[in-house]
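Justification of computing resources. Each target in the renewal requires a structure prediction run like the one illustrated here; the chain below, 158 residues long, is used simply to show the kind of job we budget for.
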Amino acid sequence: MTGFPGLLTHVDGSAYLDPHQMAETLEGLRATGARQLLILTEEAELPEGAFPLISKVSQPLGLRLSFAAIQDFNVPGDAFLTQWPERRAGFEQALDAGETVALSCQYGAGRSGLIAAWLLMGAGLPAGDAIALVRDHFPEAIENRLQETWLLEVEKAG
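Resulting structure tokens:
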């Protein structure tokens, strides 16, 4: 789980991208064994050109990107859920092969934590245990009651 690679903030609060820091973050993800990065951020919440830049920087590293936006502080919507079964199969296959799967949203806590917990649930962990495990690694993960409740409801729906 990571914030959007290379996303920084000026002292006036405006966001900008640092291509060098982006490359370092992506190289760090590759060093952990990640071959895939799921970007959960909506393009409109990032500085202009963020998606083309990360696509360009990640390509020589052999890091496959996929984009599946979830609205900030929210849970997956219909478009995400329609695409998820196919994506999930690819991520679970990678995890079964011992690879690391990287997840990115704007800060790296809410949406990334939500999907990390959901993947753990797919591997057989009960929702409460998946939430606790993700939060053990990043206490701010699954950042609100809506996200936590959604995971518990997904488990009940089975």
